[in-house]
Amino acid sequence: MLNVRSVLVTGSNRGIGLKLVQQLAGKSKGPEWVFATCRDPEGPRAQDLKNLAAKYRCVIILQMDTSDPSSIQAAAAKVTEHLQGAGLNLLLNNAGILRLSTLESETAEDMAEVYKTNVIGPMTVTQAFLPLLRKASQESLQKGMSCSKAAIVNVSSVLGSINKLHAWDHGHVINYRCSKAALNMLTRCQSLGFAEDEILCVALYPGWVQTDMGNAAGQPPLTVDTSVRGILNTLGRLTEKDNGTFVNWEGASLPW
Q1: Whole-angstrom distance between the N-terminal and C-terminal Cα of the chain?
Q2: By mean pLDDT, which of 137-151, 163-177, 179-193 is the weakest?
Q3: How many whole angstroms separate alpha carbon 165 and alpha carbon 158?
Q4: Do residues 37 and 14 make contact, with C-beta atoms less than 8 angstroms apart?
Protein backbone atom coordinates (compact mmCIF):
# COMPACT_ATOMS: atom_id res chain seq x y z
CA MET A 1 0.00 0.00 0.00
CA LEU A 2 1.00 3.58 -0.61
CA ASN A 3 2.01 5.07 2.72
CA VAL A 4 3.51 8.53 2.32
CA ARG A 5 4.00 11.29 4.83
CA SER A 6 4.19 14.01 2.17
CA VAL A 7 3.20 14.31 -1.48
CA LEU A 8 3.12 17.15 -4.01
CA VAL A 9 0.76 17.20 -6.99
CA THR A 10 1.16 19.71 -9.82
CA GLY A 11 -1.83 20.85 -11.88
CA SER A 12 -4.13 19.96 -8.99
CA ASN A 13 -7.07 22.30 -9.57
CA ARG A 14 -8.94 20.03 -11.98
CA GLY A 15 -9.14 16.61 -13.57
CA ILE A 16 -6.69 13.93 -12.52
CA GLY A 17 -4.69 16.27 -10.29
CA LEU A 18 -7.76 17.32 -8.30
CA LYS A 19 -8.90 13.72 -7.88
CA LEU A 20 -5.40 12.67 -6.75
CA VAL A 21 -5.53 15.31 -4.03
CA GLN A 22 -9.04 14.25 -3.00
CA GLN A 23 -8.28 10.53 -2.79
CA LEU A 24 -4.93 11.01 -1.06
CA ALA A 25 -6.42 13.39 1.52
CA GLY A 26 -9.42 11.11 2.06
CA LYS A 27 -7.37 8.01 2.91
CA SER A 28 -7.90 6.73 6.47
CA LYS A 29 -4.14 6.74 7.02
CA GLY A 30 -3.35 9.44 4.51
CA PRO A 31 -0.41 11.82 4.17
CA GLU A 32 0.38 14.45 6.74
CA TRP A 33 0.91 16.92 3.90
CA VAL A 34 -0.70 17.00 0.46
CA PHE A 35 0.80 19.96 -1.38
CA ALA A 36 -1.58 20.92 -4.18
CA THR A 37 -0.18 23.34 -6.73
CA CYS A 38 -1.78 25.23 -9.58
CA ARG A 39 -1.17 28.40 -11.56
CA ASP A 40 -4.00 30.50 -10.10
CA PRO A 41 -5.22 29.34 -6.66
CA GLU A 42 -7.38 32.45 -6.30
CA GLY A 43 -9.14 32.03 -9.64
CA PRO A 44 -12.61 30.52 -10.20
CA ARG A 45 -11.13 27.31 -11.64
CA ALA A 46 -9.52 26.54 -8.28
CA GLN A 47 -12.77 26.60 -6.27
CA ASP A 48 -13.07 22.79 -6.11
CA LEU A 49 -9.50 22.61 -4.82
CA LYS A 50 -10.21 25.26 -2.19
CA ASN A 51 -13.23 23.22 -1.09
CA LEU A 52 -10.93 20.23 -0.54
CA ALA A 53 -8.50 22.33 1.47
CA ALA A 54 -11.38 23.50 3.66
CA LYS A 55 -12.43 19.88 4.24
CA TYR A 56 -9.01 18.30 4.79
CA ARG A 57 -6.36 19.93 7.00
CA CYS A 58 -3.56 18.09 5.22
CA VAL A 59 -4.24 19.85 1.91
CA ILE A 60 -2.00 22.87 1.41
CA ILE A 61 -2.61 24.91 -1.75
CA LEU A 62 0.41 26.59 -3.31
CA GLN A 63 0.73 28.84 -6.33
CA MET A 64 3.09 27.33 -8.87
CA ASP A 65 3.31 27.84 -12.61
CA THR A 66 5.41 24.94 -13.89
CA SER A 67 6.55 27.06 -16.83
CA ASP A 68 7.91 29.81 -14.54
CA PRO A 69 11.21 28.98 -12.75
CA SER A 70 10.81 31.74 -10.15
CA SER A 71 7.33 30.45 -9.29
CA ILE A 72 8.72 26.93 -8.89
CA GLN A 73 11.51 28.12 -6.58
CA ALA A 74 9.04 30.09 -4.45
CA ALA A 75 6.82 27.01 -4.09
CA ALA A 76 9.81 24.82 -3.17
CA ALA A 77 10.78 27.29 -0.44
CA LYS A 78 7.25 27.20 1.01
CA VAL A 79 7.14 23.39 0.94
CA THR A 80 10.52 23.25 2.69
CA GLU A 81 9.16 25.60 5.36
CA HIS A 82 6.02 23.48 5.88
CA LEU A 83 7.99 20.24 6.14
CA GLN A 84 10.12 21.65 8.97
CA GLY A 85 13.18 19.56 8.26
CA ALA A 86 11.44 16.49 6.83
CA GLY A 87 11.75 15.35 3.23
CA LEU A 88 9.22 15.02 0.40
CA ASN A 89 8.24 11.42 -0.32
CA LEU A 90 6.34 11.68 -3.58
CA LEU A 91 6.38 14.18 -6.45
CA LEU A 92 3.57 13.79 -8.98
CA ASN A 93 4.37 15.81 -12.10
CA ASN A 94 0.81 15.89 -13.37
CA ALA A 95 0.46 19.36 -14.96
CA GLY A 96 0.21 19.21 -18.73
CA ILE A 97 -1.41 20.86 -21.72
CA LEU A 98 -2.43 19.92 -25.27
CA ARG A 99 -3.12 21.92 -28.40
CA LEU A 100 -5.23 20.22 -31.06
CA SER A 101 -3.38 20.06 -34.37
CA THR A 102 -2.54 18.03 -37.45
CA LEU A 103 0.88 17.38 -38.94
CA GLU A 104 0.29 20.19 -41.43
CA SER A 105 -1.37 22.71 -39.12
CA GLU A 106 1.06 22.37 -36.19
CA THR A 107 2.77 25.66 -35.29
CA ALA A 108 6.14 26.43 -33.78
CA GLU A 109 4.41 28.53 -31.12
CA ASP A 110 2.13 25.71 -29.93
CA MET A 111 4.98 23.22 -30.08
CA ALA A 112 7.18 25.42 -27.89
CA GLU A 113 4.37 26.20 -25.43
CA VAL A 114 3.40 22.55 -24.93
CA TYR A 115 7.03 21.41 -24.69
CA LYS A 116 7.71 24.09 -22.07
CA THR A 117 4.86 22.89 -19.85
CA ASN A 118 5.02 19.14 -20.50
CA VAL A 119 8.79 18.56 -20.54
CA ILE A 120 10.74 21.53 -19.22
CA GLY A 121 8.17 21.93 -16.44
CA PRO A 122 8.66 18.45 -14.93
CA MET A 123 12.42 18.78 -15.37
CA THR A 124 12.58 22.11 -13.55
CA VAL A 125 10.09 21.13 -10.84
CA THR A 126 12.08 17.96 -10.13
CA GLN A 127 15.33 19.92 -9.90
CA ALA A 128 13.76 22.30 -7.38
CA PHE A 129 12.34 19.54 -5.16
CA LEU A 130 15.25 17.11 -5.53
CA PRO A 131 16.89 18.12 -2.21
CA LEU A 132 13.65 17.28 -0.38
CA LEU A 133 13.28 13.97 -2.22
CA ARG A 134 16.88 13.07 -1.38
CA LYS A 135 16.23 13.95 2.26
CA ALA A 136 13.19 11.68 2.38
CA SER A 137 15.17 8.82 0.86
CA GLN A 138 18.13 9.28 3.19
CA GLU A 139 15.97 9.40 6.31
CA SER A 140 13.80 6.41 5.37
CA LEU A 141 14.33 3.08 7.09
CA GLN A 142 12.91 1.24 4.07
CA LYS A 143 15.27 -0.74 1.86
CA GLY A 144 15.21 -0.46 -1.91
CA MET A 145 12.89 1.90 -3.76
CA SER A 146 9.20 2.71 -3.39
CA CYS A 147 6.75 5.57 -3.80
CA SER A 148 6.32 5.55 -0.02
CA LYS A 149 10.03 6.29 0.39
CA ALA A 150 10.98 8.75 -2.37
CA ALA A 151 9.66 8.86 -5.91
CA ILE A 152 9.13 10.99 -9.01
CA VAL A 153 6.08 10.10 -11.09
CA ASN A 154 5.82 11.82 -14.45
CA VAL A 155 2.28 11.64 -15.84
CA SER A 156 2.78 10.68 -19.47
CA SER A 157 0.65 9.28 -22.29
CA VAL A 158 0.55 6.32 -24.63
CA LEU A 159 0.39 8.96 -27.38
CA GLY A 160 4.08 9.53 -26.66
CA SER A 161 4.97 5.91 -27.41
CA ILE A 162 7.19 5.82 -30.51
CA ASN A 163 6.82 2.05 -30.75
CA LYS A 164 3.03 2.04 -30.51
CA LEU A 165 2.10 5.36 -32.22
CA HIS A 166 -1.34 4.98 -30.70
CA ALA A 167 -4.52 6.42 -32.30
CA TRP A 168 -2.81 8.25 -35.16
CA ASP A 169 -6.01 8.16 -37.24
CA HIS A 170 -7.94 9.54 -34.28
CA GLY A 171 -5.78 12.64 -33.83
CA HIS A 172 -2.30 13.81 -34.75
CA VAL A 173 -1.74 16.25 -31.82
CA ILE A 174 1.93 16.51 -32.77
CA ASN A 175 2.85 18.89 -29.95
CA TYR A 176 1.43 16.55 -27.31
CA ARG A 177 2.89 13.35 -28.79
CA CYS A 178 6.37 14.81 -29.11
CA SER A 179 6.27 16.34 -25.62
CA LYS A 180 5.27 13.04 -24.02
CA ALA A 181 7.95 11.12 -25.94
CA ALA A 182 10.46 13.63 -24.58
CA LEU A 183 9.01 13.30 -21.07
CA ASN A 184 9.50 9.54 -21.30
CA MET A 185 13.16 10.06 -22.14
CA LEU A 186 13.49 12.53 -19.24
CA THR A 187 12.05 9.85 -16.95
CA ARG A 188 14.60 7.30 -18.14
CA CYS A 189 17.40 9.80 -17.56
CA GLN A 190 16.11 10.63 -14.08
CA SER A 191 15.92 6.93 -13.22
CA LEU A 192 19.62 6.57 -14.01
CA GLY A 193 20.70 9.86 -12.49
CA PHE A 194 18.88 9.41 -9.18
CA ALA A 195 19.36 5.63 -8.78
CA GLU A 196 22.13 6.05 -6.20
CA ASP A 197 19.79 8.26 -4.17
CA GLU A 198 17.22 5.42 -4.26
CA ILE A 199 14.59 7.74 -5.73
CA LEU A 200 12.14 5.74 -7.83
CA CYS A 201 11.33 7.33 -11.21
CA VAL A 202 8.50 6.19 -13.49
CA ALA A 203 6.44 7.48 -16.40
CA LEU A 204 2.75 6.74 -15.85
CA TYR A 205 -0.13 6.78 -18.32
CA PRO A 206 -3.43 7.47 -16.52
CA GLY A 207 -5.51 6.16 -19.41
CA TRP A 208 -7.90 8.02 -21.69
CA VAL A 209 -9.86 9.78 -18.98
CA GLN A 210 -13.04 11.87 -18.85
CA THR A 211 -11.31 15.20 -18.16
CA ASP A 212 -11.33 18.50 -20.06
CA MET A 213 -8.28 17.34 -22.00
CA GLY A 214 -9.57 13.83 -22.60
CA ASN A 215 -13.02 14.99 -23.66
CA ALA A 216 -11.48 17.34 -26.23
CA ALA A 217 -10.29 14.29 -28.18
CA GLY A 218 -13.54 12.31 -28.17
CA GLN A 219 -15.37 10.05 -25.70
CA PRO A 220 -12.96 8.64 -23.10
CA PRO A 221 -13.92 5.31 -21.51
CA LEU A 222 -12.37 5.93 -18.08
CA THR A 223 -13.85 8.02 -15.28
CA VAL A 224 -11.41 10.17 -13.31
CA ASP A 225 -12.26 8.24 -10.15
CA THR A 226 -11.45 4.85 -11.73
CA SER A 227 -8.18 6.12 -13.18
CA VAL A 228 -6.95 7.68 -9.95
CA ARG A 229 -7.91 4.69 -7.80
CA GLY A 230 -5.89 2.56 -10.20
CA ILE A 231 -2.98 4.98 -10.14
CA LEU A 232 -2.75 5.02 -6.34
CA ASN A 233 -2.97 1.23 -6.16
CA THR A 234 -0.22 0.96 -8.77
CA LEU A 235 2.02 3.46 -6.97
CA GLY A 236 1.71 1.38 -3.82
CA ARG A 237 3.09 -1.68 -5.65
CA LEU A 238 6.07 -0.16 -7.46
CA THR A 239 9.58 -1.20 -6.38
CA GLU A 240 13.15 -0.77 -7.64
CA LYS A 241 12.43 -3.28 -10.43
CA ASP A 242 10.03 -0.69 -11.88
CA ASN A 243 12.55 2.15 -11.82
CA GLY A 244 12.77 3.80 -15.24
CA THR A 245 9.71 2.04 -16.65
CA PHE A 246 6.60 3.25 -18.50
CA VAL A 247 3.38 1.85 -16.98
CA ASN A 248 -0.33 2.51 -17.16
CA TRP A 249 -2.79 3.21 -14.34
CA GLU A 250 -3.17 -0.52 -13.71
CA GLY A 251 0.59 -1.11 -13.56
CA ALA A 252 0.88 -2.80 -16.96
CA SER A 253 4.11 -2.15 -18.84
CA LEU A 254 3.87 0.03 -21.97
CA PRO A 255 6.24 0.14 -24.97
CA TRP A 256 8.48 3.18 -25.33
Answers
A1: 27
A2: 163-177
A3: 8
A4: no
